[in-house]
């Protein structure tokens, strides 16, 4: 969903991320609605691990003379695949059970987002040709952005069936980008490198309400995750003389509003649907894309997006539950700003997932899930300081696959 992960943990992933009104495990409940931990039937501790593999490529073409007479001398066209491999995504969650007390408590620690590419320099793919004056592209493009969140959570259930929950959120992120176009070029016209990445801490909060009917039937959920306000990332780079230069970027995490409904009235079937709004447009770092007077890129230029997540859980027997999920989200990147998002082509829109949970021993639950993000391509023009460049084309393509496994102990 842009750079926001659509689900956390194997169980929530197999439901397509739907979980605001249907808490199937501690991981999904803590991520999408802190109030919903009161709906868990047991105290539990769970771990999950996902192997996430993106398939990313960038294509560009430039007609002869697009950048001025003789530049280039002939048409150039090329396509390059990113060298990024499989990334690990860990998840941990623990919650207390609902016994005689109306209070529930939880603690979650999970990855909540990221992006990354690794494109080598190319003599044929125009955007990957060396920076001017040796070429007219960016050269090799590398990025790595990872976010972790920690959320101590408290929730209270009332006799009416309503619950409220709150969690302060503490975040840690790392960022590295090369070349670093968010700062003015060096005196020789080349952008500096910020491959020597930096880490930063961030803070925010999440609040939610949850309704669970006394008899199996309709559940409702509503939650709001505030923007996660991070320290500025400060990377150690160098200028054209080899001297030290500090590169700085303010990059926060967007606010997320989630509304969910679930029906649990069937004997062996549960259905959940979530609608989310992710507010990229009002998040630092994602503002309108373009070049300022000094030649620095002003932001990623992402649009705020709507998301629909739906999942079905089927109790095959008393020890096995199978699930299917689907997520659709608008792309925050369109043809007008794809050029500025070569390091972060977060353009997937359709996700399909499936998975199961099997009770393997008394209270021990083993889960497995697979998700495929269907390939999407967004193309647009090359942009310069004066606007679109005629006779050019940039296209980014992305598909994703992930395999998640989890182990939970219920008490």
Give an overview of the whole structure.
- A hairpin with a 5-residue loop joins strand 12 and strand 13 (about 270-280).
- The chain is elongated and about 75 Å long.
- With about 400 residues, it is mainly β.
- The protein has helices at about 10-15, 25-30; strands spanning about 45-60, 75-80, 85-95, 105-120, 140-155, 160-180, 195-210, 220-225, 230, 235-240, 245-250, 255-265, 270-280, 305-315, 320-330, 350-360, 365-385, 385-410.
- The protein has a single domain, classed as Porin.
- A 14-stranded antiparallel barrel has the order 1-3-4-5-6-7-8-12-13-14-15-16-17-18. Strands 10-11 form a two-stranded antiparallel ribbon.
- The chain is built from two helices and 18 strands.
- The model has no long low-confidence stretch (mean pLDDT about 95).
CATH topology: Porin
SSE class: mainly beta
Radius of gyration: 23 Å
Q: Specify the number of helices.
A: 2
The CATH architecture can be named as Beta Barrel
Largest sheet: 14 strands, antiparallel, barrel
Pfam family, one: Toluene_X
Subcellular location: Cell outer membrane
InterPro entries: OMPP1/FadL/TodX
Membrane topology: Multi-pass membrane protein
Name some characteristics of this structure.
411 residues; mainly beta; Porin; 14-stranded antiparallel beta barrel; two-stranded antiparallel sheet; Long-chain fatty acid transport protein; cell outer membrane; transmembrane; transmembrane beta strand; signal
Short description:
This protein is mostly beta strands. It has two helices and 18 strands.
């Amino acid at each position: 969903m842009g750079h926001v992960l659509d689900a956390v943990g194997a169980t929530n992933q197999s439901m397509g991320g739907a979980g605001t009104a249907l808490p199937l495990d501690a991981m999904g409940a803590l991520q999408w609605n802190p109030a919903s931990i009161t709906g868990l039937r047991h105290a539990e501790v769970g771990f999950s691990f996902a192997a996430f593999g993106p398939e990313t490529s960038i294509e560009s073409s430039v007609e002869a003379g697009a950048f001025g007479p003789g530049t280039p001398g002939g048409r150039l066209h090329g396509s390059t695949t990113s060298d990024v491999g499989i990334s690990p995504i860990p998840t941990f969650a623990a919650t207390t059970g609902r016994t005689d007390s109306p209070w529930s408590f939880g603690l979650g620690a999970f990855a909540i987002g990221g992006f990354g590419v690794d494109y080598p320099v190319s003599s044929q793919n125009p955007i990957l040709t060396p920076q001017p004056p040796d070429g007219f592209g960016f050269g090799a493009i590398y990025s790595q952005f990872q976010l972790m969140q920690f959320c101590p959570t408290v929730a209270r259930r009332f006799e009416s069936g309503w619950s409220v929950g709150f969690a302060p959120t503490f975040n840690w992120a790392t960022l590295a980008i090369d070349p670093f176009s968010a700062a003015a070029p060096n005196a020789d016209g080349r952008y500096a490198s910020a491959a020597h990445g930096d880490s930063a801490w961030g803070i925010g909060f999440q609040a939610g309400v949850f309704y669970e009917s006394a008899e199996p039937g309709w559940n409702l959920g509503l939650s709001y995750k505030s923007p996660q306000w991070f320290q500025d990332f400060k990377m150690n780079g160098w200028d054209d003389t080899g001297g030290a230069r500090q590169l700085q970027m303010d990059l926060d995490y967007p606010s997320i509003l989630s509304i969910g409904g679930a029906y649990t009235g069937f004997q062996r079937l549960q259905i959940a649907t979530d609608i989310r709004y992710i507010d990229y447009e009002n998040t630092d770092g994602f503002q309108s894309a373009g070049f300022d007077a000094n030649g620095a890129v002003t932001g990623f230029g992402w649009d705020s997006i709507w998301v629909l997540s739906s999942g079905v859980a089927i109790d095959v027997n008393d020890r096995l539950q199978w699930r299917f999920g689907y997520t659709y989200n608008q792309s925050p990147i369109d043809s007008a700003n794809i050029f500025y998002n070569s390091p972060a082509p977060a353009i997937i829109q359709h996700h399909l997932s499936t998975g199961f949970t099997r009770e393997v021993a008394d209270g021990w639950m083993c889960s497995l899930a697979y998700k495929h993000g269907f390939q999407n391509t967004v193309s647009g023009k090359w942009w310069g300081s004066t606007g679109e460049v005629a006779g050019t084309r940039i296209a980014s393509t992305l598909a994703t696959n992930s395999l998640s496994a989890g182990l939970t102990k219920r008490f």
